[in-house]
Amino acid sequence: MPHAPSTPYTAYLEGRDPLAAMRDSIRAFQDVTAGWTAGQWERSYAPGKWSARQMMIHLAQTELVLGARVRMALTRPDFVAQSFNQDAWLARELGVSGPDALNVLVALASLNLALYASLSDADRQTPLTHDEYGPMTVDWIIHHGAGHQISHLRQLRQLSGHG
Fold first, then answer.
1. Could you tell me the pTM of the whole model?
2. Strands of 127-130's sheet, edge to edge?
């Protein structure tokens, strides 16, 4: 496998394999939030930032989007991925509880991880285009997603006092 692609979140991997990082993150999201009350889900790691519940909804939505992009790229030649407005998406699902969003995240991330682990090196080099980022590969999406999980996991750890 060639060197890691440069995404906005690759640095969060600190050279780790993205699939191993995802495996660890899925467990860590559950561990960090275990036993949280409704009030704890409404805390934010910084003023003006999303609450833990909103962050978890965002993470679940991102898994939905990234997994769909990979599946489309692998099955449709010349696939062009569309960007999404994360704030507008979040606003549509603000009624979801933190624990429910966590369950969706774990389910989708596990499904995506199983797919990603099944891919050959050639599959991971499948090209696609993104309307904002330009040309990329499935491997780019995998690295992006893994780093994105770690980024938000760090924020949740701050809230739990395990930063």
1. 0.94
2. 80-81, 127-130, 134-137
Does pLDDT of 35 surpass 90?
A: yes
DSSP states along the chain: --SPP--TTGGGGTT--HHHHHHHHHHHHHHHHTT--HHHHT-BSSTTSPBHHHHHHHHHHHHHHHHHHHHHHHHSTT-EEPP--HHHHHHHTTTS-HHHHHHHHHHHHHHHHHHHHH--HHHHT-EEEETTTEEEEHHHHHHHHHHHHHHHHHHHHHHHT--
Residue 23: which pLDDT band, with cuts at 50, 70 and 90?
A: very high
Contact 153/15 with Cβ under 8 angstroms?
no
Determine the pLDDT at residue 4. Answer: 85
Which residue in the block uniquely carries the two structure tokens 């780093």? Answer: 147
As a whole number, mean pLDDT of residues 88-111 equals 97
CB 13, CB 143: distance < 8 Å: yes
Which are the contacts of 55, defined by CB distance < 8 A and separation ≥ 6? 152, 155, 156
